[in-house]
Amino acid sequence: MVIRKFLLSVMTLAMVSLAGFADPLPYVVTAKDTLESIVQKTGVPWTFLKKSNPGLERTALAEGTKLVVPEAYQVKPGDTFYSLGRRWKISPSQLMAWNAISSPQQLVAGSILYIPPQKLNSDLHWPETVVPQGPEGLLKMAQFPVRKGYFYSVCNGTVLYKGDYAGLGPVILIENEKNLVFAFGNFQQSEVKYGENVKKGQKLGTLSSQMGLIFFVSQKGKPLDPFQGGFW
Question: Which residue has better confidence, 120 or 147?
Answer without folding.
Answer: 147
